[in-house]
Amino acid sequence: MQVFRPLEAGDPERVGPYRIVGRLGSGGMGRVYLARSPGGRATAVKVVHEELSDDAAFRKRFGREVVAARRVTGPFTAPVVDADPDADQPWLATAHVPGVPLGTAVATHGAWPERSVRALGSGLAEALEAIHRVHVVHRDLKPSNVLLAPDGPRVIDFGISVAADDTKLTTTGAVVGSPGYLPPEQLVGREVGPAGDVFALGALLVYAATGTGAFGGGPAYAVNYRVVHEDPDLAGLPDGLADVVVRCLAKDPGRRPGVPELIEELGRWEGTDGTRSTFTPVTWLPAPVAADVTALRAAPLPEEATATTADADLPTVTVAPPTAVATARLGAPNVRPSLAARLRAVARQRRAAVLAVSGTLVVLAVVAGLLLPRAFSGASGGGDGTTSSGSPTAAAKQLAVRGQWSAEKDLWQPVAADGKVVGESDGVLHAVDADSGDIVWTYDDPDASSFEGVSDGLVIASSSENGTIQGIDLDRGKRVWSVPAKAHTAPGTSWHLHLRVVVAHGTVYVNAMYDLPEGAERSGTYAVSALDTATGRLKWTRTVEHTLSGALAVVDGVLYGGVKEAGGTYFHAWDADSGDQLWRYHASASRHYAGEVTAITVSDGTVYFGDSRGVLHAVDARRGTKLWTCEPDTDGLEEWLEPLVVSDGVVYGGTGSPTSDYDSGAVHAVAADSGRLLRTEHTEREPELHGLLDGSVLFSTKAGGLYAADARTGAPPVETRLSSGDPDATVDGDRVYFDGGDGRLHAGRISLTST
Q: For 68-78+99-319, which CATH class?
């Protein structure tokens, strides 16, 4: 079963960095394509129609809504991974959900039993809670915008969603949406809020339970008339669903139930196996639908779309021009080392050039002695956390890095972004062309000597002397703004150290330590603060009397960080716009031996974070409740390192010594749903993960090697030597940039070939 169509004449070959391989659908705002990311992941890319791209007012709305919508996250929504509102034809990219549309499932197999309808409603209600929590309204919830996955439904395509607090952007009299699912207030031109989505949810429950719309079919104007003036047709609806559906479809928005009430009421469903509220294909889906969903999930997507399956969809009605655009989540800022690693780096002298060699890159392609697990593909392995041994189970791969250029300078902790490689060399920032190695610009300012990363088209740098933070234009190397430390330093304290600086969506988030006056009971205090990038104005600050961890992450409008308090280590979630605490999770009890949070990532509604005690935690991102913990055998001396990588149900992460990166380390694979340790592989020196390429997990070690472990077959990893020492590598797609051990920055192209 396939839910994509072949490409047609005029379809783009690429959109941004994404390679287009098929069509997924189209709507009033744009066309949706199946695409491949540079790393090979399936992605859904929505490209705005050309006529809308020429509308300046639409572009303005699109840009503003992308900013608002990036905050949406939840286990039953599809995450948006990229967007470019300023492209000739604006676009956004979401993770591809290989699921069957609800409309297709009902049209093919008929009405659902009450159990399945309740489960569907429970998942959709949770999705709406995630959307409404950040003041966004979907506005086009319909059968084709609900995908059925084994672990529950996914709400997709926020194509005409509008930020609930920004309804003034809506064109007067505009009605955009699908007949039978638009609430009465939207049809008569009144303000539409979260209750409008509740109305659509009620209509979806009727459709799933009866196979027909609550207000019948026929011309759009007739359906819309019945929505406004007549009662819904609930013939065939199970008695157990009638009450909740009637309340959802009330004409008066104020009489409809709230989403939390729906979660409570619909969440008490029981699967066929007796389990309560547990989403698996067997427990929540009708049997024939489960078979389709399972088959679709198991079938790999081809590089080229060659077949088509008709999608049972409903027409989208547009009366007056469209006024809203897709919800998007923008990419997260570049990851930086943990606090311990940064302090070690500050204490160490910059490494000297140890080899005087030509710019020719010597490539070795050898099979490494360490074996990464079958568990990387989710296949069964030892599963006991032990080091693997034995022979390959699939055709071995050969890893090679073919040299492309070497630059005159070595860049410390280089970052690749927008065709450039940026880093710091001897206190001076440089950007080199990613294709040639030529220096694009140099920025020499003592107040920008510490390179913090790249985000939102800005190079972020700070001063270790006075705490000034600067934003530098990535393209031109010119200062855009400068924020002094006094902007976030409380009266009676003096700035001492930036633990982490992250920039996301027009805001600088700062983790910092401050000195207290002489004679104070404590030597210092901490604070996390948010500053406007355009003005330097302090948006908010939260004082933390206890020790603030160096790790900091901003995802979907939520700021995550760790605090060592009197009762132990706590993991905090703060509203990124206001600084209000959303929840606090008690990670460990002992303050003295609790450790600090050292690595954070968020995926599919779960926050994963590691600490310096060697414990990996998984916490529900919405509630802050514990899901699981995993503690590999690291003798209590290894901290989790950034970045953590989540892919295909597995969390990959490295651990290393909290005191020295010259010690040995390890790479771990952990089941994302249960926390079961799948395998631990020891490395000669501290590892750094670089993500996935062509189905292989890439990581380097401070001993100078780059490794690729096949994530599908569990074949042994292969190695190529980058340097005689720490390569300080960064990977961008199939490009790797690294210190070759000769004081120069090298660029190479990674290739993985079967032997």
A: mainly alpha
